[in-house]
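Q: I have 450 residues here and want to know how they pack in 3D. Can you give me a structure?
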Amino acid sequence: MTDSFLLTDLYQLAMMQAYLEAGETDIAVFEFFVRKLPPGRNFLVAAGLDQVLDYLETLTVSEEDLSWLAGSGRFSPRLIDYLRGFRFTGEVAAMPEGTVFFPDEPILRLTAPLPEAQYVETRIVNLLQFETLIASKAARMRLAAGARTLVDFGLRRAHGSEAGLLAARAAYLAGFDASATVLAEKCFGVPAVGTMAHSFVQAHDSETAAFLSFARARPDNLTLLIDTYDTEEGARKVVRLAPNLRAEGIEIGAVRLDSGDLVALAVKVRQILDQGGLPAVRILASGGLDEHRIRALLTAGAPIDGFGIGTSLTTSADAPAFDCAYKLQEYAGLARRKRSAGKATWPGRKQVWRRFDADGRMAGDTISVAGDPQEGQPLLQPVMRNGRRLGPAPSLAESRDHAARQRAGLPEAMTALEDSRGYPVTIAPALRALAQEVDRRIDVLNARDA
């Protein structure tokens, strides 16, 4: 149902009708940005652009949806006629997926006739907010884990099937190595990996029988879950089984711990494996982990080689939403702004320029009107015109590499898991002057209405 034209807020359709009735169909400019960072965050990672562009490029109104709208009695014949053959005809500029960004910086700028630009708000916010949320969470976990393996285990705890699938994509983009979600491999090329559940062990008369059965059925990249009963004894059974399996051409790649004191158990299991001649067998851990727990485990010296992350990743449990917005910044050639207390916006079409220090690390950003070039690299790039992509989308692997370079370019203080000193984002004089000009115009107009 996610491809239905009706997957929107009612007020988008109501506003479309009102715009059409008033003849308000000139070109509008909207921008998507985040107002402030969630607690503990020092940066965000842009994600979801590919899904947004797919949505815009394929946007249509089916006969079924059109019939439902007409039959609902809520909408005028004029709107129904307008929607026949409807498609998105505008243009988009955006930061590439994987780009690090900060509050007030637009990561997407959309230009289109006002009814079109208004209608697409709901789905654009839905896609960008969620994937950016998960990518930003995943990037923190990558920073905490260093080079150790990270796997997304979160589909079953995600808030719906689409969320679980897109979380796997966003996490991989931001640095995870794989996902347990099989469909993510088919749709996006995210490597699908998996081990076994406790139920598999429980279904057998003995743990050894379970290990042997699974190893013979799934010999490649074999990982055994050893904490169903007694973790240390499970590790010893792995040691005893290893020679027999090797004789069958099967190598045990890893064991997984999912409960208990992971530091103490990992140390003991490592000793058992090493003393049993299995120093190459890796130890993976899962079970209620997040970036803080990963850091604590590694700081305590736990010999863990990789982590499976579920709930805390796919729900971004500590920060499940952003204070983000998709706001009108220009209409009919005039800059516009919102002046609500605590939610004021900077007007006009904007660009973000980023400066770097001698070591190639990010040194500061400047936001200004698009026609006011600043020192540094412009981050918003044209990606769509006339409702069609300007070229092939970067592959997910390319976006993932870009995200890795962005992480490597963060100032060291910004890689902490706690609040750091703020990254310098400057509002250019030209943008401040435009805001003052818009305010004066609004004040004059409002005075006439008084």
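Q: Anything worth noting?
A: The chain has two domains: 10-134+321-449, 137-314. The mean pLDDT is 96.
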